[in-house]
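Narrative progress, year one. The postdoctoral researcher (J.K.) led the effort to move from monomer predictions toward full complexes, under supervision of the PI. The following entry was the first complex the group processed end to end, covering 605 residues in total.
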Amino acid sequence: MSSNQPGFSTLAIHAGAAPDAATGARATPIYQTTAFAFDDVDQAAALFGLQAFGNIYTRITNPTTAVLEERVAALEGGTAALAVASGHAAQLGVFHTLLQPGDEFIASNRLYGGSINQFNHSFKNFGWNVVWVDMADEEALKNAVSGKTKAIFLESLANPGGVVIDIEMVSKVAKAAGVPLIVDNTLATPYLCRPIEHGADIVVHSLTKFMGGHGNSMGGIIVDCGTFDWIASGRYPMLSEPRPEYQGMVLAETFGNFAFAIACRVLGLRDLGAAISPFNAFLIATGIETLPLRMQKHCDNALAVAEWLEAHDKVEWVQYAGLASDPCHALAQKYLPKGAGSVFTFGVKGGYEAGVKLVSSTGLLSHVANIGDAKSLIIHPASTTHRQLTDEQKTAAGAGPEVVRLSIGIEDVADIIADLEQALAEI
Amino acid sequence: MNHERYDDTYIRGILDEVKTIAVVGASANTVRPSYFVVKYLISKDYDVIPVNPGHSGREIAGAMTFASLTDIDRPVDMVDIFRNSEAAMGVVEEALELDPLPKVIWMQLSVRNDEAAKLAEAKGVKVVMNRCPKIEYARLCGEIGWAGVASNVISARKPKLQQGFQRFGINRHTKAGQ
């Protein structure tokens, strides 16, 4: 056998998942338990003091969840990971560890609408202030940095428009500002893009989407890239100051290049409580075993559907970075060479009424507010996810009256196209 | 010897071979990394000897502390150095005065002294630098994965369960060459 590191597909199946130590079970067992018996009092004390590795309580660690964590850390090329209840919980955990009341962070204005809500409203209650920036504009990004800036956040492949951000440019700005770069890699997955290779310090995911891949389990994860020097920075007291919860321990000193993931676990998850269920962790970890196969099929199908739509006479426009005509195509070629994902939008002729008619007429594509399922999904944002907004706000958010969002699944592409063809004929 | 990267077989061989480990710079402060290492290695059944002149004659995590390497009353298989890179030279020179010689000189994470390493290797002593034996043991045995940390080890062999429910040992086959 060679001394080479295992490849991506091998890691997707094996990382984190040796046979069970107690029984030899080859599939990962579902440890559906709240608590774990201590070997003795001394071991219990060592576990509570973070001096030993082991399990106490499923809110903090669980052996099934640990398999998922190690697997995603390996696939992203990070040092460690922390799985939580959802992508939103992952974002909460990251910012809880980084920010103090009155701090700011810069976020790309091209984000999933749920993240825009979380940053604008819930985070405001904690005194964490978001500064929105168009990250296609390098000068605007640089000008947004202030003495209060503690982090920069972007999506590698933005939902819903499939916009690709120049991660390396943003990373340079983050390094100059001395703050970590956080990348939400949900739509790309590490199969298409590994943000750590382009300068990310922290990666987050909604595992609910392509990572799990089957639309059956909520989950989120925080990946520590091990690249940020918390001690040298000194601006992140959760990591670089003695912690009263742990008798004055300095987490960055004790846990080195995986201290961020540990801090999110033992200071964040421990107290915030958004733990993932071991059963969900099992389903998502199992889904990841086929991630390389699924993602390539998602991308191949999406490109074929986008090309077909682009030539259809009832379609005004298609926004998909995989198309040569798309403004993000060059960035997609650089950051996502294997494919531009499978979530994209198009404009249907006939505006709002035509959009409603189209999503009401599909027989194979499911009309749901989700993405990243094995099944093909369709939604008309103006009449659903974005209906509370004014017309102007809808257009600014990329959810104008004519916009339809697709999440192309892994069915036979001829069947997906045939269903869209008959639905477009109903308009 | 390339000290940029170590094969898992090299590290596992060392951790499997040594029984007695002197930890130079061990702290009695229970939240310091050096205390963690002493406590963890004791839990893995190593004979750990803390070395700290300010604490000699007293115990750290139940192990008696000595003032210097040369004061230790029994042969030492491995010297683990919790001092800065510059100070590591003096520790290595003292370690190489021991009779019998230690089998291994180990310098902790962020500690590296190539000149000292050459001195030790010239006498046939194995050297590891810029690594932590606690992390390496936990990585190779699989325990580190419980904390969500990437072990960079994959294996189709089950971890070796030591005593109790939550203690693994390092003797198992893994994908070769890692």
